[in-house]
Amino acid sequence: MTHDAVTSADHAAPAALIADGRAHLGIELGSTRIKAALVDDAGAVLATGSHAWENTLAEDNWTYALEDAEAGLQACYADLAAQVRERHGAEITELASIGISGMMHGYLALDAEGEQLVPFRTWRNTYTEDAAAELSSTLELNIPLRWSVSHLLHAARGGEEHVDRLGAITTLAGWVHRRLTGRHVLGVGDASGMFPIAADGTDYDAELLERAGGLEAFRDRPWSLTDLLPEVLVAGQDAGELTEEGARLLDPSGTLRPGAVAAPPEGDAGTGMVATNAVGARTGNVSAGTSAFAMVVLEGPLSGPREEIDLVTTPAGHPVAMIHTNNCTGDLDAWLGIFARFAELSGSPVPAEELYSTLFRAGAEGEADAGGVLSYNYLSGEHQTGVPSGRPLLVREQSAGFTLENLMRAQLHGAFGALAVGMRALLVDEGVQLDVMHAHGGIFRTAGVAQQVLADSIDTPVAVGASAGEGGAWGMALLAAYARRRRHGDGDLSLTDFLDQEVFADEDQSVLDPSPEGVTGYARWLEAYTAALPVERLAGETLA
């Protein structure tokens, strides 16, 4: 079986490439969909697959059942395999490489045998405030509520029975990777959402591990933090291979064989950076979905800890400032669903793509400050704006211009509202230099609309590439291809050079500069948005 580099002829013959086991698979477990992308060595997409799933709120804990994760992986892979058969007349029997990514952060607690101890606690939970505050004070860094160490300390401080039985903690991507390969490892980007990473970007910070281990709630345990945390790997390092058991988990039919090179599992923030080629200094990317986060690759240290800013890394270990928001497109999608239902009732149903495009373009025609209409898209609490329990709200002044155009403009502004608050701390207060912000996610599919709103909200050029819609699964497939290349090809090729030379060299991009009117209008809107936040907080206190 040959695994030579893909040639130009291979692009015209994907069936042969797939049949020879030379394709690379990336799977990402996102907040609403599990997606798969199958690519060649240069990142050309051969096929995709997907499966819808949802989190649940059980006993005040946002969670996903791991049984649903297993079933979803299998359904997603089966969808991919079916598309391969339909499009290429081929069967996937072997893969060159595989990579898993998932929602960053959260808390997945396992015993010594790898069995789950408590339900998965996702990034969306905000009950770790006291634990995160203690860690931030002890480590003299901003430790966010959703980080794994915050969840661990919360459980330990609360005297939860499972804590002494811990054998390992990991993220969702780390758990799936462990099931597929048997390795308890994590890519540095995802690991940086578990515990702070050292300055060299290759491992956890040893001094901070010692400091954290001295906390009262962590003392006298049958484990140390080092025992529990996954091994840290940077992009391209050896993360194992797909085992026989892993292949059967992914493909119960028995068609897929083991042996694929495994990339270090990553978080969705890292795959978003790869998918937009935003891994170099003074570049950044925004990933917009149910939640949103902006990643800006830093040239140097910040002035000090800031509550709005998380310090994480690229998949290659370079320092990154992350602005994370719990809410982005969820309420916008709900409003679009209302309009879709109206169209149905009127006897003229509109396809989803056309509906989104029509209403987004209407929003582009709205007043620059949305005419006094405010939208709070808070399906859950929002730490960036100090809202502990979210309630979606549409608020307007008596004299507001309440038109369809302004309503949709407010919805688009609101999707990036909390993100804009955090970005001001980074770009204005900290003076971080950002040449271009790359964007990806479904909200950018209507050309130029959400892209312009984002550019105006952060007063920075925003680029959307032709590949942006491929998303994190594609980014993870690229990391898998890079891992295969490092293992069996060029062992010294940097991730930046791989992306620049092999993947994005000929990519078409649309770049929009911020408009003076849009920047001024968004600033007025954001001032009103922040001033009215007490109304949003009150809604959380009074609306069940």
What does this structure look like?
A hairpin with a 3-residue loop joins strand 13 (283-288) and strand 14. Helix 11 crosses helix 17 and helix 16 packs across helix 19. This protein is an alpha/beta fold and 544 residues long. It has two domains: 8-269 and 471-503, Nucleotidyltransferase, domain 5 (2-Layer Sandwich); 330-415 and 517-542, no CATH class. It is built from 20 helices and 21 strands. Helix content is 39%, strand content 17%. The chain starts with 7 loop residues before the first helix and ends with a helix. The strands form six sheets. Strands 15-16-14-13-19-20-21 form a seven-stranded mixed β-sheet, sandwiched between helices. Strands 1, 2, 3, 6, 11 and 12 form a six-stranded mixed β-sheet that branches. A two-stranded antiparallel ribbon has the order 4-5.
Fold blueprint:
Blueprint: H1 8-12, H2 14-19, E1 24-29, E2 33-39, E3 45-52, E4 56-58, E5 61-63, H3 66-88, E6 97-102, E7 108-110, H4 129-139, H5 148-157, E8 168-170, H6 172-181, E9 185-187, H7 188-191, H8 206-213, H9 225-228, E10 231-233, H10 244-250, E11 261-262, E12 266-267, H11 268-275, E13 283-288, E14 292-297, E15 310-313, E16 319-325, H12 330-345, H13 352-364, E17 373-376, E18 393-396, H14 404-415, H15 417-429, E19 436-440, H16 449-458, E20 462-465, H17 471-488, H18 495-503, E21 509-512, H19 516-531, H20 533-542
Parallel strand pairs: 1-6, 6-11, 6-12, 9-10, 13-19, 19-20
Antiparallel strand pairs: 1-2, 2-3, 4-5, 7-8, 13-14, 14-16, 15-16, 17-18, 20-21
Helix pairs in contact: 4-5, 11-17, 13-14, 16-19
